[in-house]
Write a structure and sequence with these properties.
5-stranded parallel beta sheet, 3-stranded antiparallel beta sheet, P-loop_NTPase, two-component regulatory system, transcription regulation, transcription
């Protein structure tokens, strides 16, 4: 049994014995592994955390030594290299596994105080949304009792751990604020004075704590102290930030000065926490994934999306933006970046709905929507059965709210319609591989490949500028092979950072002799091969057959007349089939000087499709992403298509 504490001084106990590492670097590595428990932590992430942009030549060897020392000191099993990714170990057997490109610490998250804090906080919020205020207050108090000091207070932190520490502290303040609000609503202002005073001393510019302390003091008959709390807040805001207190705090100040009677009891808080219609204002879901730190470019597209979704307008129509683009162009990262920029405009919540598992058939859309409703505070046992009924309930819940919904990896318009919110104050961002299946309303944004300058900028952010300067010609060649696709660029740069002994020249030489290598290089949970396979997987049989025909030529472009001549009779209208393949971003359209349209398959997409049609397996794909083994349902059908098209 292992117990790990990060909320305060680092504490590690194994079977009741203190085994906390004392060496700063060991503590740093362990903290990063714990905060990413049961997930892969890549070598480049660990090196960046330990040495930022200046790893020593012996970085890989040194890191391996740290891993060995952690295994020995904490009695961590090494496990089997073939164990399924992310699987949980037996309760008594935490393990530190070596994975391709990094390491995974497998353990029960209940063993870590930071994860228990998150679980209790979410439980408390769910109880609050269900109307159980007293239970919610107790649960949130238990969550806060896990804190024994500042997050990661005695751990040296690099970029990643600093971000984690900030996030943990912000979540702590959010939970404190919600708990104080609940306790005041329940009339426990006397019991809360000490904790509120301590929180305000620790965060003297936090307006919510100041307001809650003012209310509690006023209810306890200490009006001068309440006014003094306002003066203290204003002094800090003006001196440190050059700001005046918010209008809400200034109104509260005037009410305390006037000794308004409605501030004296819990009814005031209940009134302040409800809308005119009587609906409780409780925290909404906040499900957006973390923003991508190395995001590059797309400013024009981001501005277009933000202008359309974020502006105030009189129309009652629901606002939808669909994001399209070829495989690997970064649609999901773009949608998440845009959603984070729009968060302040949607205070009632942000939902993230990943439909990749629905597209693979491993999950039902009704189950996904049910999970969304649960996040919104509607208990599963109170939800109806059936997709249509769940959709109606979702529209009802969102009718008077301002909620942002991000729907990722859409296959058909019907999938989006099932999760559309019902209020005109809501908005939707949908990433769609299939432009032909888009909705009839809303805006459509097609993401192009990155420019050469943007490609180099992204490479620098992942691999470091020094890597490019050491071998600029080889890096330029690598960027040319990546064709401006962020997925490929991150995969290439990530491989170089994971292999400190490799040069850009060596990798470029490897890729020249092995086209498959670039397709299989992972960037996170995906590779170019898996994302092309996901786009190809749901093509109708006539489209697959036409695609096989187009793969016969590596460079030349096809005219419509050539396709009509070569296409098997009876398969369908050639122009319609070509337009469909263009819409799903597997084929490019080119307009000649004579206004003739020519068609071609992009080089990397072509290489991936040929591998798919040959039936070469790509291996396991983590986190439920599409594996190429399921691209074509029947091997006989695939072979027939290849023979017809002449692909060998």
């Amino acid at each position: 049994m292992i117990e790990i504490g990060l909320l305060g001084s680092m504490r590690v106990r194994r079977n009741g014995e203190d085994v906390t590492p004392s060496a700063p670097k060991l503590r740093q590595v362990l903290a990063l592994l714990v905060l990413n428990a049961n997930s892969l932590v890549s070598v480049d992430q660990l090196c960046e955390e330990l040495w930022e942009d200046h790893p020593p030549l012996s970085a890989l060897t040194t890191l391996q030594t740290y891993i060995y020392q952690l295994r020995r000191r904490l009695l961590l099993a090494t496990g089997q290299h073939g164990a399924p990714f992310g699987t949980r170990p037996p309760h008594s057997c935490p393990a530190l596994l070596t994975r391709v490109g990094g390491y995974e610490l497998r353990l029960h998250k209940q063993a870590v105080d930071a994860y228990r804090f998150d679980q209790l906080s979410e439980q408390g919020m769910a109880q609050l949304r269900g109307g159980a205020g007293d239970e919610a207050a107790r649960t949130l108090k238990n969550a806060l009792s896990l804190w024994q000091g500042g997050a990661l207070v005695d751990i040296s932190t690099g970029r990643r751990l600093s971000a984690w520490s900030t996030q943990l502290e912000e979540r702590r303040k959010s939970v404190q604020e919600q708990r104080f609000s609940l306790e005041l609503e329940l009339g426990r202002h006397h019991a809360m004075l000490d904790e509120l005073s301590e929180a305000f001393r620790a965060h003297p510019t936090h307006e919510a704590f100041a307001g809650q302390l003012m209310r509690a003091l006023h209810r306890c008959g200490r009006r001068p102290d309440a006014l003094n709390a306002f003066r203290t807040l204003r002094s800090h805001l003006v001196e440190e930030l050059g700001l005046e207190p918010s209008a809400q705090l200034q109104r509260l100040h005037q009410e305390v000065l006037a000794d308004r009677g409605h501030l004296r009891g819990p009814a005031a808080t209940a009134k302040a926490d409800t809308t005119p219609g009587g609906r409780r204002l409780v925290p909404g879901p906040a499900q957006l994934p973390a923003d991508t730190g190395d995001f590059v470019g797309r400013e024009r597209e981001l501005d277009q999306l933000e202008t359309f979704l974020g502006r105030d307008r009189a129309s009652t129509g629901m606002r939808v933006v669909e994001v399209h683009g070829p495989p690997g162009v970064g649609k999901s990262a773009f949608a998440v970046r845009a959603a984070h920029r729009l968060r302040p405009r949607f205070p009632d919540g942000q939902l993230f709905i990943d439909l990749s598992a629905v597209g693979e058939g491993s999950q039902q859309l009704a189950d996904v929507l049910s999970a969304c409703l649960t996040a919104c505070g509607i208990q599963r046992e109170k939800q109806p059965a059936g997709l249509d009924e769940l959709s109606r309930l979702f529209r009802t819940w969102t009718a008077d709210r301002r909620v942002l919904v991000v729907v990722d990896d859409v296959l058909t318009a019907s999938q989006v319609r099932a999760v559309l919110p019902g209020g005109s104050g809501c908005a939707v961002i949908a990433t769609n591989r299939y432009r032909a299946h888009s909705l009839s309303t809303g805006r459509k944004i097609v993401l192009p490949a990155l420019s050469p300058e943007e490609s180099l900028q992204l490479y620098d952010r992942v691999a470091g500028e020094r890597s490019r300067l050491e071998d600029p010609a080889a890096v330029q060649e690598l960027m040319g092979q990546c064709e401006g696709l962020p997925l490929a660029i991150r995969a290439v740069a990530g491989r170089l950072t994971a292999r400190p002994g490799w040069s850009a020249s060596r990798l470029a030489l490897r890729l020249r002799g092995n086209h498959r290598m670039l397709l299989d290089l992972p960037a996170g949970t995906q590779s170019l091969m898996t994302t092309v396979a996901a786009s190809h997987r749901h093509l109708p049989a006539p489209s697959q057959e036409l695609l096989c025909l187009l793969l016969q030529r590596e460079r030349p472009r096809w005219s419509l007349d050539e396709v009509v001549t070569r296409l098997r009779p009876g398969i369908g209208d050639a122009e319609t089939l070509l337009e469909y393949l263009v819409d799903v971003h597997l084929v490019q359209e080119h307009l000649t000087a004579d206004a003739e349209l020519l068609y071609s398959v992009p080089r990397l997409t072509r290489q991936a499709l040929i591998q798919l049609l040959r039936g070469t397996p790509t291996g396991d794909v983590p986190n439920g992403r599409t594996a190429t083994a399921g691209v074509v349902a029947r091997t006989g059908a695939r072979v027939t298509l290849m023979k017809r098209a002449g692909v060998r």
